[in-house]
Amino acid sequence: MTQPLLSVNNLTHLYAPGKGFNNVSFDLWPGEVLGIVGESGSGKTTLLKSISSRLIPQSGEVQYQNRSLYGMSEADRRRLLRTEWGVVHQHPLDGLRRQVSAGGNIGERLMATGARHYGEIRATARRWLEEVEIPASRIDDLPTTFSGGMQQRLQIARNLVTHPRLVFM
Question: Which intervals hold domain ABC transporter (predicted)?
Answer without folding.
Answer: 21-168
